[in-house]
Design goal:
By secondary structure, the protein is α+β, with helices and mostly antiparallel strands. The protein folds into two domains: 154 residues, no CATH class; 104 residues, no CATH class. The protein has ten helices and eight strands. Strands 1, 2, 3, 4, 5, 6, 7 and 8 form an eight-stranded mixed β-sheet that branches. The protein is elongated, with a radius of gyration of 26 Å.
Length: 275
Amino acid sequence: MLRRLVAVLLHWFPHRHFTLTGDGGYGSHEMARFAHRHRRRLTLVSRFVPDAQLYTPPPVIAGKRPAHRPRTKGEKLPTPEATVAATEPAERTACNVSWYGSGRRDIEVVTATGNWYHSGEGLVPLRWVFVRDRTGTHRDDYLFSTDPEMAVAPVVETYTGRWSIETTLQEMRAYLGLETTRGWKEATVLRLAPCLFGLFSVVAVLYALLPVRARAAGRVEWPGKVETTFSDAITAVRRWLWVNWVFANHGYGAAFSKLSRPFQEALLSALAPPA
């Protein structure tokens, strides 16, 4: 299905180059072959398998047509995990890259190029990258790009950059009901999904425009939390709309202001509970 969708995208935009990134489920040899066939316009970056079978290109035989079937692969190369195991820590390359959650992280990498082989499916040239978080908070990972000339930092940053998309979809499912409706018609899906994505953006913009005190209202804290979540944002926006729009525009603003502070908080918590 993904290959079909990407094929449609390439057909619609023949003059653009696309970089496709996804989790390990999308980093298959089949998808890598597809990206290699369209390498002038498509690059795939995904998670790699540590024990991938890598080879050099098959030797070029000049002259007469060979009497036997030509080789499909060259000499076998060490697997990524074997290469990493043979690389001393002092020989690894240190980098500072963009990381999950829009921060930056110091990492050390081991990288090499090779041709990924799958039985009966041919070779795919690629660059693989072993990533170790030097702070020790993230597991070791293997990534790859179907562009062997791609530098290490862009490979890592392309993969980690997808995280904002993942969290956006997760939060939209949890708080805005994305993919929970029973719309059986194409028009329903085409109408509803863009509206929910637009609503997500409206909540984010409104939250950014709220006064500092209003942004702190209804915020849920837990140990280790350092950033605002979408649930904080939508709760603060809902509370602000009740006080400054619903109550104010329907003649209840004065009555609400006369209530005791604890009662106001209890009322707002019922009308706009923490998400």
